[in-house]
């Protein structure tokens, strides 16, 4: 995880690397690759909200009327194929409740991007709009990471003394959430035999202390959750921050090869190895968990078949376990060759929304949309520059949105007719426990552990 240490250090010391950071900056890290990217100095930003696309560049701003069903066509005409982009796409794009302070879609093109590869440090790759800036930044970045000890700073140990009391947060009462879970199970049990699943979420918010540095929360959280599929930190104007440790990829496209994750079914973890092994075995053998995962896998496979060249789809892994800090997930993966007539924007459109109930008639029956999702459950990722397109898109789960000194988090479960409301209730807490622990440590200013 050398690249994680390096990206933390570079992002924490931007003024040592760059003369001007700007209003936007991001880091995206992929543990499995031991690779991270840092982007700054806004060259172009494209946002969509309230029926309007706004394209802002250094010397001009353009506005276009648009609707959600036409947005992908317009984006294809605006996005520059030879440039990198970081993106966030909100579930609220297709929901009635929205946060008017946030865009529904944002594509940010950096004027300077740093690629940190853990196998090559202290060498780094810097892309910039002019060669002078590129060389200067590359020398500065190499200098600030040359003396770092990348092996001494690995993981944050479990702390039994950390208070994870969710009552510190404002949110839906437990009784109300349990009632919605029970209602969802009841609705599903009245459905026909077709595969049916309802996504039930609950949200929390908390006013933060004024002296906290948001990037410190990202550092703590990513050191805890090093087995995540990806982590991101994105700073937007007016101090809006999105950060998270996603458990799953929506898709990863490298040239024409595309991989899809299927993450469904969950159990808690134990620090005791024997007990943890028992819990994993139960997860693999449990009828309800197997049913939920099989439904998700079959649904994903049907979607993949419509996007890929016939007979190109392969099962990469089937019902393995993805082990995170506090929970285990059942995990399958497929790969295929993308149809020659399609590109990454087609994938984004076809795979959106990544978090949804099905069949579509169930979407609005229990989640009454009283609270916007902001960026939770949507898409987050990066588009590489160049003709050999590399696009990595992740489901924005286990995430936090900080706005106007308030932190917003959400957790959810996929409910099927065999679900038990009280167990689904506990599952949400298990899923959020690592993020809650990170926030608690952050608020205690426990940065001496890293």
What does this structure look like?
This protein is of the alpha+beta class and about 450 residues long. It has 2 domains: about 1-145, no CATH class; about 170-450, 4-Layer Sandwich (Anthranilate synthase), CATH 3.60.120.10. The chain is built from 10 helices and 19 strands. The chain has helices at about 1-10, 15, 70-80, 130-145, 175-190, 215-225, 275-285, 285-305, 345-350, 420-445, and strands spanning about 25-30, 35-50, 50-55, 60-65, 85-90, 105-115, 125-130, 170, 200-205, 230-235, 240-245, 250-255, 255-270, 315-325, 325-335, 380-385, 390-395, 400-405, 405-415. α5 (about 175-190) packs antiparallel against α10 (about 420-445). The protein starts with a helix and ends in a 7-residue tail after the last helix. Mean pLDDT is about 90; it is low at about 445-450.
SS elements, strand count: 19
Instruction: Compute the separation of the termini in Å.
Output: 14 Å
Number of domains: 2
Summarize the amount of helix as a percent range.
25-40%
* Main CATH class of the largest domain: Alpha Beta
Largest sheet, in brief, is: 19 strands, antiparallel
Mean pLDDT: 90
CATH homologous superfamily heading of the largest domain: Anthranilate synthase
Q: Strand portion, in percent?
A: 25-35%
From the 3D structure, determine the CATH topology of the largest domain.
Answer: Anthranilate synthase
Radius of gyration: 21 Å
List segments where confidence is low: pLDDT < 50 over at least 5 consecutive residues. 446-450
């Amino acid at each position: 995880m050398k690249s994680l240490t390096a990206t933390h250090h570079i992002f924490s010391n931007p003024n040592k690397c760059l003369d001007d950071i700007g209003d936007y900056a991001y880091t995206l890290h992929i543990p499995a690759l031991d690779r991270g990217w840092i982007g700054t100095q806004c060259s172009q930003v494209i946002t969509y909200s309230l029926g309007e696309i706004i394209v802002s560049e250094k010397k001009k701003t353009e506005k276009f009327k648009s609707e959600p069903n036409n947005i992908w066509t317009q984006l294809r005409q605006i996005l520059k194929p030879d440039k990198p982009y970081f993106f966030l796409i909100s579930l609220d794009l297709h929901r009635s409740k929205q946060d008017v302070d946030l865009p529904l879609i944002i594509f940010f093109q950096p004027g300077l991007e740093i690629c940190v590869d853990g196998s090559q440090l202290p060498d780094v790759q810097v892309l910039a709009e002019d060669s002078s800036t590129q060389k200067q930044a590359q020398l500065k970045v190499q200098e600030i990471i040359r003396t770092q000890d990348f092996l001494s700073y690995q993981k944050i140990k479990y702390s039994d003394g950390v208070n994870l009391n969710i009552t510190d947060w404002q949110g839906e009462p437990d009784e109300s959430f349990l009632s919605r879970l029970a209602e969802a199970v009841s609705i599903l049990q009245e459905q026909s035999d077709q595969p049916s699943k309802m996504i039930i979420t609950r949200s929390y918010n908390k006013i933060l202390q004024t002296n906290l540095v948001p990037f410190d929360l990202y550092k703590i959280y990513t050191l805890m959750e090093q087995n995540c599929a990806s982590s991101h930190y994105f700073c937007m104007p007016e101090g809006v921050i999105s950060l998270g440790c996603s458990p799953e990829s929506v898709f990863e496209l490298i040239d024409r090869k595309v991989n899809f994750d299927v993450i469904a079914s969950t159990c808690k973890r134990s620090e005791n190895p024997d007990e943890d092994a028992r819990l994993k075995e139960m997860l693999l053998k449990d009828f309800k968990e197997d049913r939920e995962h099989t439904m998700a896998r079959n649904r994903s496979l049907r979607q993949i078949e419509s996007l890929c060249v016939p007979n190109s789809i392969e099962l990469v892994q089937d019902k393995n376990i993805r082990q995170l800090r506090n929970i285990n997930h059942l995990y399958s993966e497929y790969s295929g060759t993308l149809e020659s007539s399609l590109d990454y924007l087609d994938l984004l459109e076809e795979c959106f929304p990544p978090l949804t109930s099905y069949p579509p008639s169930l979407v609005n029956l229990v989640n009454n949309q009283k609270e916007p999702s902001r960026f939770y459950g949507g898409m987050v990722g990066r588009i590489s520059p160049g003709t050999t397109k590399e696009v990595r898109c992740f489901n924005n789960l286990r995430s936090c949105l900080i706005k106007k000194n308030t932190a917003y988090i959400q957790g959810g479960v996929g409910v099927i007719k065999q679900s038990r409301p009280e167990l689904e209730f506990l599952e949400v807490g298990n899923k959020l426990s690592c993020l809650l622990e990170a926030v608690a440590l952050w608020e205690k200013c426990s940065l001496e552990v890293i």
